[in-house]
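Quick one: co-fold with 2-acetamido-2-deoxy-beta-D-glucopyranose.
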Amino acid sequence: MSTAPKLLQWVGVPFMCLVVIVVVRTVTFPSYQTRPPPCNATDQDFIPATRDRLDRLAGAVTFRTISYEPGRGTPEELLKFIAFIGDSFPVLHSSPLVTREVVGNFSLLYRVEGSDSSLNPGLLAAHLDVVPVTEEPGWEAEPFSGQQKDGFVYGRGTIDDKHNVMGQLEALEFHLKRGHRPRRTLYLAYGHDEEVSGYYGAQKIGELLEDRGVKVEFVLDEGLTVTKGLVPGVAKKVAMVGVAEKGYLTVKLSVRMKGGHGSMPEKESAIGILSQAVANLERNPQPNLWGSGPERDLTEHLATEMSVLHRVVTSNLWLFTPVMRWVMTQKAGTNALSRTTTAVTRFNAGIKDNVIAPEAVATVNHRVHPKHTIQEVLDHDVKVINDPRVKVEVVESLVPAPVSPSGPESPAYLAIQESIQQIYPDSLVAPSVMIGNTDTRHYWNLTSAIYRFSPNVMGPEDLARFHGVNERISIGDYERTMNFYFHLMLNVDRPLVVRRHEHDGDL
Ligand SMILES: *[C@@H]1O[C@H](CO)[C@@H](O)[C@H](O)[C@H]1NC(C)=O
Ligand SMILES: *[C@@H]1O[C@H](CO)[C@@H](O)[C@H](O)[C@H]1NC(C)=O
Ligand SMILES: *[C@@H]1O[C@H](CO)[C@@H](O)[C@H](O)[C@H]1NC(C)=O
Ligand SMILES: [Zn+2]
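Sure, here it is.
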């Protein structure tokens, strides 16, 4: 008697079942993408990037509104920029619907009164300040010139974040000029020190709104962009909407030992012990959390748009999560989405060639995954260092941002998604996590629906322009920025309710 058929029965039947489930799920996995009517340059309400609009963006870039450190910025430049904004948008600034407050001396808070007080206000945010220009050579245009060249506007702030400030104001100006009377109240909040944590700008705005008991329907601030060639298996452009921000934790490690002359060393030194601690941290990374946070949603929102093999995997995360966990942590970029990262950023010890260092100090910078707590990260460090002689101290920390809802169940997210797809009809939209931080940390108490998105396109080669040399925006992208905000203002100017549609057929 042969056991082969029996074995086949035991192994083969479950295996075939598995294959069937995987195939059925792959074929029936719901699409999260939408196809709203695209914005067309021939539309009556299209905002073209005319010379005067481009000149206003260029004008905004000429103000050197640099933030150096918390509390140390460029007051005169900020005041000039604020005056420039006042002069640039006469309709908005004379409209009886609009009030403007200067908060913390240099930040701006606009309120556009809606006619329907049953609708919670919306809040669009951006910031007035920029990072410094370093001595690095290679700028193809003066960094504060706003020069237009080869279809781009060059200069510090063109993608961080004056395009958003000016794009929102252009859209609102255009709206009001057309006689639009909004139903939903809209706030525009422009902090002046975002690049150095927003303690004097956005934080004051957040506190002011909270004191007034304002609850908003959603916040949209700067953030992730429309990306090209970043998601494996996806050929189209992907607009990523930040639904969370990683937190951070900076830890100081120190070891103190008896110093002494280099000629008669003890067995162990402060440097040796600290080196061991640092090596342990690098050898034992923080846990792999891929699949527990918004990085899972990113994958599922794109599943139906992927090439076949990727699609099979991403439609079946119930089965393939372990595979994804391994794959995603192989490269630094995707690893950063998958876990709390550990970067040893400083290591100092030693005073003289022939003297044993009495102290060694290192700094470790963690970026904390949205599903991780600061305490868990710290506990892991202490456990893997496993040496009481290494003192572990917290220098500073920020808890990860609460995860905002995404997908068909969250109407504010959908309004943003549809606005993006009107402007970029050939682009997909998916939620993702921001590694860096924005002013939104100061708005957590105003709403649970906080999104971070900037409507310009960034290819892998453009990432270095951000806070770097040759920061620039294409004229096409700036035009899309203005029209994105225009459409968003229209799309949220109605009750935002969950709409039932085809996504409900999920297996
Ligand atoms: C834009 O509108 C024009 C004329 O109304 C039409 O011919 C064209 O196909 C439209 N383009 C898109 C992308 O819808
Ligand atoms: C704002 O300006 C006033 C008067 O110039 C000054 O006393 C105050 O300290 C400033 N406040 C901030 C937050 O800079
Ligand atoms: C939010 O509210 C809590 C509780 O009132 C307060 O402790 C916290 O500072 C507020 N957070 C922000 C970002 O304003
Ligand atoms: Zn910014």
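If it helps, Confidence is low (pLDDT under 50) at residues 503-507.
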